[in-house]
Amino acid sequence: MLDILGYLPVKRKATPSGWISFNAVCCQHNGSTADRRSRGGLKPTETGWSYHCFNCTYTASFILGRSMSFKARRLLGWLGVPDAEIDALNLESLRHRSIHGIIDDRQRTFNVLADIQFEEQELPPLSESLTGEDPRRDYLRQRCVPDDYPVMIQNHPERAWQHRSSVIIPFIHDNRIVGHTQRFLDDRKPKYISNSQPGYVFGTDLQHSDWTHAIVVEGIFDALCIGGLAVMHSTVSDEQARLIRRLGKEITVVPDQDLSGMELVDRAVELGWAVSMPPWPADIKDVNDSVMRYGRLATVLTIFENRETSRIKIELRKKNLVKRLRS
Fold first, then answer.
1. For a surface tag, which of 27, 212, 296, 306 has the fewest beta carbons within 10 Å of its beta carbon?
2. What are phi and psi for residue 29, nearest 5 degrees?
3. Closest-CA residue to 280 (of 321, 249, 326)
4. Is the dihedral of CA 105, 111, 113, 117 positive or negative?
5. CB count, 10 Å around CB of 277?
6. What's the chain's average pLDDT?
7. CB contact set of 92 (below 8 Å; sequence gap of 6+)
């Protein structure tokens, strides 16, 4: 099997959890700035590997015995693996597949469904709870974030470049902090700095046991303002799909109304989930925009009124939306 470690950048670091971090090779190909903070991570396993970029959120994986995905092919190409070696690896993988491999796949899926865990993480240094009246509270209210969500702030950041007003949204899973995103409130870049573990879905702690439906969106603020689930990019990884399915609810996916959001539509159809693309005005790009203009109740009602499960109707709505976006 291909030794992918031989194609990783020379400057890299192994972590105790088995991940190998290095400057991500995917960011410039995905419209983000080049990574210089070792935000790319690859975790080798006995039968393959997983990759996650904490800068542009690109993910890919490979397991011996499965056909290589398009995203895995692209990653290997960016790492400098020749096309001939990629094709040979895919052929080797398909030859390896057997009835025993299929049984192993099903057993691994069952194990993941039964026990999905994330490592507990620290928040940025000197983080503290946002209490009382504060200009940052005004920003959160403007974005329709509930006052009771445990938003954090930094009043005494250690690094000079962090002397920018920001809010920190903890990522919570099973009542433990497993990551965060820091949203800066000025117009400079980066707007966000995030620490998210592969497979994590934001908003599982927002779900109520008596809810029969869950709404899947792209962004953190989209999820916060309606009590939804955020996948934090324009697709859904296999690990995220398993975590969402484990909730046992009817799923409705609401993509951002831009061209990149159409990738999330395709993934939702592939997973057999319902999709809603409400006929919002052109200046409303996502759920959070709608809530800020129309309110939470009206937005949720509009989402369910436009919920589609038919692949043909979803494709037709997608085609019309793409036509409008390109006009």
1. 212
2. -75, -15
3. 321
4. negative
5. 21
6. 86
7. 1, 64
Dist. CA 56–CA 156, nearest whole Å: 28
Mean pLDDT of 59-64: 85
Domains of the chain by residue range: 4-114, 125-196, 198-327
Residue 301 one-letter amino acid: L
- Residue 44, both tokens: 């080798």
What percent of the chain lies above the pLDDT cut of 70? 91
Residue given tokens 């890919």 in the structure block = 60
Can you name the residues that pair with 173 across neighbouring β-strands?
176
Contact at 8 Å (CB) between 180 and 168?
yes
Q: Rounded CA gap, 127 and 153, in Å?
A: 6
Q: Which residues, 6+ apart, have CB-to-CB distance to 186 below 8 Å?
A: 164, 165
Domain at 198-327: CATH code: 3.40.1360.10
Alpha-carbon distance of 195 to 43, in angstroms, equals 16
d(C-alpha 111, C-alpha 44), whole Å: 19
In the block, residue with structure tokens 């993480």: 121
Cα 180 from Cα 122, distance rounded (Å) = 9
- 6 C-beta neighbours (distance < 10 Å), count: 9
Residue position matching structure tokens 């507990």:
120
Single-letter amino acid code for the residue at 135 = P
Each residue of 98-114: pLDDT tens digit? 544 544 544 444 444 44
Specify the amino acid at residue 282. A
Here the tokens at position 213 are 């439906």
CB 35 within 8 A of CB 24: yes
Spatial distance between the Cα atoms of 137 and 66, rounded to a whole number of angstroms: 48
